[in-house]
Amino acid sequence: MQLKPNAFRLNETVRGVETMTRFALAVLALASGVYTYLGVRGLLDGSATFVFFAAIIYSVAVSVAIYAFWSFMLRFVPLVTSGVQRIGLFVTMAIGCAMIIAMSSWLNAAALAGSAATEQHMAVTLQGYAEDLDQAHANALAAQSLLPDVQRAAERFSGLAADERESGALTGTTGSGSVVQLLTQMGTQMNQLAATITGSRDEVAGLFEQGSARLATMRELVSTPGQVEPRADAFQTEAVQLSAVIAALQQTGVAASVKRASADLSAGFIAPVADGRSADLANRQDQVMETVRASVAAQSSALSAAADEILATPAVEQRRYTPLSSAEAVLRYWQDFIPSWAGAISIDLLPVVLVLVLMIVHDAMRRDSESLEEAENITAAEMLRALALYRRMEAAGIDVATGQPKPLVEKPPAEQPPLAAEIPPDDATVTPIEAAQRKRTDGQRPA
């Protein structure tokens, strides 16, 4: 095969890098197998020996499959020139790339970023628990906003009772009677309700401190360097304890208790019998007690409405920490580890670039080469037989190109050459040797 200088140099270069191409392909297949082993080891359960041999066998199978597949592609794709056949090989190569990603690349990504993905899962879960703790704490403290209203109502009832006792501000008669007794009773109930709300504040604060301590421990587990598996187990234990604290905070809220107490103020209102010595005083006591009843009903309605608003706040849903393997974490949080995914896939699919380079180079050699493809493998004997056949066809008057007899061409009659005696000697064309021979012959002739 005759090659132009450019095609010859390309051909020599391809031969020169063939060994390097095989070595690079073997190294890439080996690297993919190693990271596949690291990734699949975290997915298997069982004894250490079983996990080791199972991971080794799988990784070796992956390495051999990758090397064999890309060897076929490097050999065949550059040699195929037909468009349909080349498209078929490209489709086959795409299917093979998808299978390689499915059996190897995601395990490589798990080996490269598995620990970081597990820590990411722990960090996301920690953030969710922190939000739940804050919301539960806020819901528990929401009932504290009712405390000022309850305290004001208690002070008002107690103040009216004192004024009625000392100056008869309501009935016009001083002393302790039915009105003073009723107002004192209402003030006492309000103080008891305020004490209930105040008492829950200390319990809420204590539970919140416990939850904050659990969160601090969980943050340390997320950020502490080292193996991620023991830290994930300890994180799960702390998450269970924190869930219990959050549930206790939700049970500590006194909004429901305040609503029931405020409803009892109105529904359970029992007015004492007027104890005035005269009918006029008894009548005035009845009027004041009716006014107190209306005031208690209004206060009860306001407290119930405020408690309903607090109770309408959505409760914190119970959150559970679900441990994930490194491979599962990489798949769930893939968008946070795009560089690791890119590196893992590039190890397996880098030979695509080599295939395309060889395909382009072979196309360039085919364009630059000047050869007869049917004569590239001819032997010397076949060449001699072809030459002999060519001479026989020429002698027989057969056109070699078409295989048909050549047309006969009539030649004009040739003139008879003159006799040698009639041809005058041309001294200009006679050599010195011929001239000497002529003289010797002329001397020998008889006169």
Number of strands: 2
Oligomer: single chain
Number of domain units: 3
What integer is the average pLDDT?
Answer: 77
Beta content: under 5%
Main β-sheet: number of strands, strand sense, barrel status? 2 strands, antiparallel
The whole-angstrom Rg is: 54 Å
- General form: rod-shaped
Query: Which sequence of strands runs across the widest sheet?
Result: 1-2
Kindly name the structural category.
Answer: mainly alpha
The string of secondary-structure elements, in order, is EHHHHHHHHHHHHEHH
Report the uncertain regions: 419-423
Number of discrete helical segments: 14
Q: State the end-to-end distance.
A: 74 Å
DSSP helix fraction: over 70%
Tags for this model:
1% strand, 14 helices, 447 residues, 3 domains, single chain, two-stranded antiparallel ribbon, mainly alpha, rod-shaped
What does this structure look like?
By secondary structure, the chain is mainly α. The protein has helices at 5-16, 18-41, 48-76, 83-142, 147-167, 178-223, 228-252, 255-267, 279-311, 326-332, 338-349, 351-368, 380-395, 432-444, and strands at residues 2-3, 369-370. The chain folds into three domains: 2-114 and 335-375, no CATH class; 117-325, no CATH class; 380-408 and 416-441, no CATH class.
